[in-house]
Structure formats: structure tokens, C-alpha cells
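Summary for the funding panel

The consortium committed to producing paired sequence-structure records for every protein in the target list. Below we show the first two records in order, beginning with the earlier of the two.
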Amino acid sequence: MTSPLTTPALGRWTPRLWGTLLVLCAAMFLDALDVSMVGVALPSIGTDLHLTTSTLQWIVSGYILGYGGLLLLGGRTADLLGRRQVFLVALGVFALASLLGGLVDSGPLLIASRFIKGLSAAFTAPAGLSIITTTFPEGPLRNRALSIYTTCAATGFSMGLVLSGLLTEASWRLTMLLPAPIALLALLAGLRLLPRSAREKDHNGYDIPGAVLGTASMLLLVFTVVEAPHVGWASARTLLSFLAVAALLTVFVLVERRSAGPLIRLGVLRSGNQVRAQLGAMAFFGSYVGFQFLVTLYMQSLLGWSALHTALAFLPAGALVAVSSTKVGAIVDRFGTQRLIAVGFALMVVGYALFLRVNLHPAYAGAILPSMLLIGAACALVFPSLNIQATNGVDDHEQGMVSGLLNTSVQVGGAIFLAVVTAVVTAGAPAHPSAQAVLDSYRPGLVVVTCIALAGLLITLTGLRTRRTQRSLVVAKSLQEEANAEPVGVRD
């Protein structure tokens, strides 16, 4: 399929196509920015609104709950109701929720605004990704577009720390208000630039039972994982919640297998590349979120760095991702997604492992910067490649579904592995903490982070081995066919 906004013979991008991509990138940038930006502002919010630590935690968790819990529904809704329509409505809701979050004067209202923002992001993210995959034809053009798009997400996540550090110096409300004007400008541009998309014509009704079960299971899973470190992993509440999640997911699978128009077509997961992309997304984001959490604590609590100083320490990783944005697509064209994902995970493993060397008096250039550069290079390779691998070979009418599934893997992976890392660090917390004892309690968490990335690498390597086996079978079959076709009497 060739987009009407490109020149088929040359594959050139028109100004309108660039504008379309810019609108989608702006929304993805805001989604990622909002995940990371609020963390630095939490102490100021707590002081100003007189909030307890448990209430402050829900300012972060509320966004994750809305985002991770509704992504499956958001992706399928984009397929059924039209990607452009869903994207623009959700972006408008995001702008209003951002404005509300900057003006409220109570904790519950702030948490509500964060949940609404997460909910709207659960619709903009899969709708935006599916607009790209249905506008740009599969191959070099789509690879380039996805590399730019996913780079904006990684850059937004990294820049959120820096911007939050700067804005919180003036007022925490600015961190909440900043996305509002950007979202509004993107909405106005999107009304003019985004290609119109028809609703799916051949769907077999709306899978209401699947939507209810899928959304409920994801909401309960994210809620349970977020709360587990506080109420205890072995508590009756946590165990019963996980049991309920398992029951909901079992019923969900049974419903989807029988539904004429399922929320998720389970046949998509028969593809090895698709399964590896989903598991890789969980390992990629889960390991990075856990790493960022521990390193932020290390820098601010143990080294005494300011929020801005900490943010600047992460900046080289984000800058490396931003600089490489236009190059990754061409690298994918040449080497394929599996190889790049494998190389990226290998860089992450080395980067995380190197950080285990840090002490209470680190030299930034020698102890911290190498890890940041390796992790930045890994993000530049892995994140675009995962998106390309997950969406390649998928029919247009299922792009929203697959996009929602991939984003769900990212968010659920982040929530689960961050909770695991937090539990490991909490279990090893010293009774009489000294700076060195606290640092020693962080190391097992860093080991877990490294192991998560290693698991992502091993999962990816299975794809490379399968591919080599398939190639060998194809070559052997071709040689056998040539031998069978050889005329009688002809000898080597």
C-alpha cells in the first residue's frame, strides 16, 4: 500500500506528511513526558497540598492505571470508530485534563485529573501508532517514520526529568500545565493535517463482553502490582487480587475465542515475531523504569544532588536517542529488527552491569556516563525496532489492536518490574541505615534490572536462531529441487 501523501516513484514525503508525523510525534512526546515529569515535582506537591506519602504515590499510579488499563480498549476503538476521530477526541481530553491538573487545590482532584490523562493517552497512543502504520507503506518509509516517532517517546521520557527540574523551581503547577498548550496546538494542527480514516466496515459488531473483561483485568492487574509493595506481596489482598486477575483473563480468552469481532484476535499471537516483540517491550521498559527509579534515589538521597542535577545526569542518554532519530530507520532496513533488538539489549545489559561499580563518591565521567551512553544507544535501537516488528505484516484493520497490545505490554511491564525492583530493595533495607548500607541495598535491585534486560536479550536470540533454521531449510529445499530437476546422465 502506498500512501496518497507520498510520491510512489521516489518515496518522497510531502510537507503535509511531515506535518502529520509531527502531530503524532507531539502526542507521543506528551504521553512519555507526563510519565516521567511528575516524579520530581512530588515533594513540592505534597508540601503545598498537605498530602501524605501514600496519596502522593497515587498521583503517579493514577496515570499508570488509566494508561495501562485501557490500552487494549483504546486500540480496538481506533479500528472500529476511526483512528483520526479517536485520536483527536482523546487529545482534546488530554489538554483539558492537563489544565485541570494545574489549577486544582486538592489531592483527590489532582489524582482524578491524572487518571483522566492516562485514560486519554490510552486512546491517543494506539490510534497515533496505527495512523502511522496505515499511512506509511511497510518497508523503508514506515521504518523511518516509526524510528522518528518512537524516538520522540524516548526523548519525552528523558526530557521530562529535565523540564520538571526546571519548572518545579518556579512552581509544581507549571509541570502540570505545560502539556496543555502543546496538546492544544497539536489538536488544531491535527484537524487540518491528519488523514481521514473510515470506520471498519466489515466488523462483526462490538465485543462488549471482551471490552469489559479486558479492561477490568488490566485495571485490576496494574492496581494490584502498584499496591503490592505497600500491602505486601504475600498478603491476602494481593493474592486474592492476582487470583481474580487470572480468572478474568481466563474468561476473557474464552470470550475472545468465540467472539465474531474480538477485542484481540488471539491468532495474532501465533506469530513468533509478535510474541517476541510483546515480551521484549515488557523487558525493555520494565528494566529501564527500574533502573531510573534506583538511580534517581541514589543520586538524590545518597549523593545529595538536586532534581535538576539528577535530570542533567540522564540527559546524555536522551540526547543520544534524539540525535539518532533519523538514522535508525535506515539501519533497520539493512540489518532487520531482530539483530538490532539483540544488539540493543546487549548494550543495556552491559550498561546496567557497569553501574554496579558506583560508590558514594563517583566520578561522573568514569562511573556514570558510560552507562548512560550505552543505555541511550540501546533505547535508540530497541524501541523503534520493537514497534516495527510488532506492526509489520499486520492488516490495516488490525493495526490499532496490535498497537494497543504493544503499548499495554510496555506499561504493564513497567508497572510489574518496577514493583519487583521496589520489593527487592525494600526487603534488603538496613535496620540502621548508613549511606553505604543503603547503597548496598540498592545493588540487588540493579542486579534484578540487569537480569530483566538479559531475559529480553535471550528472548530475542531465539528469533535469530529460528530465522537461521528457516533459512537453512529453504536452502536445503532449493538444492534438493535442483538435484531432482537435473537431467539424467549429467554428473558433477
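The next record, for a separate protein in the list, is shown here:
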Amino acid sequence: MTETTGTATPTVMIDNARVRVTEWRFPRKGDNTGWHRHAVDYVVVPQFDGTLVIETEGGTRNEAHLKTGVPYFREAGVEHDVVNGNDFECAFIEIELLDPK
């Protein structure tokens, strides 16, 4: 998998030795993060009620139905592209766990 640049806008809010917190904003339906692999464990906190389409290698597409403020956790190694499946702007906060200390 080759990492690619998507059309969603990442805004790094905190970046230190222990965590990186990034807001991912998707202005339009179809905007995406670009293909990437997560090198560390992470938590996502949706800022909307709606759907993201998760594309994985091999062409698999799964819908993730999210609720505002309801977080989910994933372990390092996940490879995917995340796509806005909504007819409205959406965003989520991604918290990467860099160092357990």
C-alpha cells in the first residue's frame, strides 16, 4: 500500500512525545483521508452523526455508522482510506497514542 494525499483537511491540535491529536474535516461527500497505515494505536471521536466509508486493500468498502462523541479504538497496523459518505460536512478527532510512558 502506498500512502496518498486525500481531500480531507487534517489540523494537528496537539503533538508531543505522548499523543498526537488531529481533527480530520471532510467538507463534501467523497472527501477522503488518503490511503495510510496507522503506526500506533489510536482513538477516534466523531463530531457528527452519520456514515464514513472505510476502504481497505483489495477494494473492500465498509460503512461505519458513527454517533457524535461516541469514541472507538483501533490497534496499530490498520491500513485504509476513510471517505465521507454523507451529504454534509463532517469531522472527527483522531488521538494517536505515541508513548505509553
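Regarding this second record: Residues 9-97 form a domain with the Jelly Rolls fold (CATH 2.60.120.10). The radius of gyration is 13 Å.
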